[in-house]
Amino acid sequence: MSDRYQFFTQTPIGRLLVKNLGLPDPVVLERWEPGAPLVDGTVLVGGAGRLGESVVGQLDDLGIASTRTQEDGEKYKGLVFDATGISSSADLVQLQEFFTPVMRSLTSCARVVVLGTPPELVENAEQRVAQRALEGFTRSLGKEIGRGSTVQVVYVAEGAEASLASTLGFFLSPKSAYVSGQVVRVGATGSTDAVAIADVEKPLAGKVALVTGASRGIGEQIARVLHRDGATVLGVDVPQAASELQAVMGEIDGDHLTLDITAKDAPQRIARHVKTHHGGVDIVVHNAGITRDKKLANMPEDRWSSTIAVNLTAPEQITRELLEQGLVNANGRIVGVSSIAGIAGNLGQTNYAASKAGVIGLVDAIAPTLTDGITINAVAPGFIETKMTAAVPLMTREVGRRLNSMSQGGLPVDVAETIAWYSSPGSTAVNGNVVRVCGQMMLGA
Ligand SMILES: NC(=O)c1ccc[n+]([C@@H]2O[C@H](COP(=O)([O-])OP(=O)(O)OC[C@H]3O[C@@H](n4cnc5c(N)ncnc54)[C@H](O)[C@@H]3O)[C@@H](O)[C@H]2O)c1
């Protein structure tokens, strides 16, 4: 779906109007292409905490050039600030001291990552206050930085210092083009272990990935990106979508299974297929979803129930069946697809928002119980350009597109890249997170 306004803003007259009238300025976001460097430029590392040195080493392992000294006239593609040493509100001035002089030295589509300690895990109240303050700082910076740049805070638990590579690689690269203003925890729940990635080009080589709703839209893109990263994909979709599913899976040498995930025996059939054909599964992505919008006053029971059944009950039951049968391999990854509606709510979507908030509940409930390096996380997409959003009335669509820090909708690949980061063998310490892929939408926190 083309964004005609964005196209117009790239023309000479469009540029003039954007500048003089202060109109939204949706810059063309950089997205990663196979063969390109992960970060096309230098990352400046600042701050004095427990992470700085290991960050430099991990960036080096990823092939990302970094420096700890700001040079006059130098442009930076990324900034990493180690704020773990900030232990009181007075110390927060270190943020201003580091960032203010360097803000004009950033390239477009630059990346900023502030590293902290999870506030709930520090014992000292003053330090907890100061660490929590990092969220407000990063969210505001995300709203003012502009030019397609992004800002996140990554809270790193004690013991997880060496487990940052996959997370830094994602948030410093164009793979996180449409993710901004997010708060991520590494090592706060479950394992803090660092797992080395054997093959950087194909980090998912040898892995089997189950993707529901894989015949089109976001699910198709998830399947393609996981395949790009080396996984064998088992795509699942309804019988009505069988030919599209087979076509997509044929292109990526994948396997397919057609069934309705709400069928009573669906969890058992999926488990049987996974066991018989693949011996187990490494990545499970619960992407299949439907909307059946109506204001609650007019909501028929079937619209309510079908939405909850597809979006929430099926992911719950499939997850339970695969875990109970021991079919999720060690270092396995489970990913739920929530929605911004599940966080902020949306008119006409009480059923959908309940189901998508429930997906976050599933992550909260299961994350602390997992062993063997298995993780569960969720993505919460905002406005993503798909057939689903193309059908939204024009004015609502325009509002959805523009009311975010990027002034544009995201692409299915942005959701897929976020899932690929969760799925990486290097993300064992990334458990229990919900990351919004929404260009820092103004709705919700
Ligand atoms: N597009 C967006 O802007 C957006 C925003 C937030 C969240 N999401 C979520 O992302 C996911 C994918 O959305 P999309 O835009 O690609 O939707 P889509 O309608 O294009 O694709 C959904 C896929 O799920 C499949 N599916 C539906 N019911 C199924 C069932 N019972 N059993 C098996 N497969 C079933 C469909 O056949 C389809 O292939 C959904 O969970 C959706 O709620 C999308």
Structural description of this entry:
- The structure is a single chain.
- The chain is of the alpha/beta class.
- The protein folds into two domains: 31-186, Rossmann fold, CATH 3.40.50.720; 208-437, Rossmann fold (3-Layer(aba) Sandwich), CATH 3.40.50.
- It has 15 helices and 13 strands.
- The protein has helices at residues 4-9, 12-21, 52-61, 93-102, 125-145, 165-172, 217-228, 242-251, 266-278, 301-324, 341-344, 350-366, 387-390, 394-402, 412-423, and strands at 43-46, 66-67, 76-82, 106-116, 150-156, 182-186, 208-212, 232-237, 255-258, 281-286, 328-337, 375-381, 434-437.
- Strands 9-8-7-10-11-12-13 form a seven-stranded parallel β-sheet, sandwiched between helices. A six-stranded parallel β-sheet has the order 2-1-3-4-5-6, with helices on both faces.
- Helix 7 (217-228) packs across helix 15, helix 9 (266-278) packs parallel to helix 10 (301-324) and helix 10 packs parallel to helix 12.
- The radius of gyration is 21 Å and the shape is globular.
- The structure holds nicotinamide-adenine-dinucleotide (NAD).
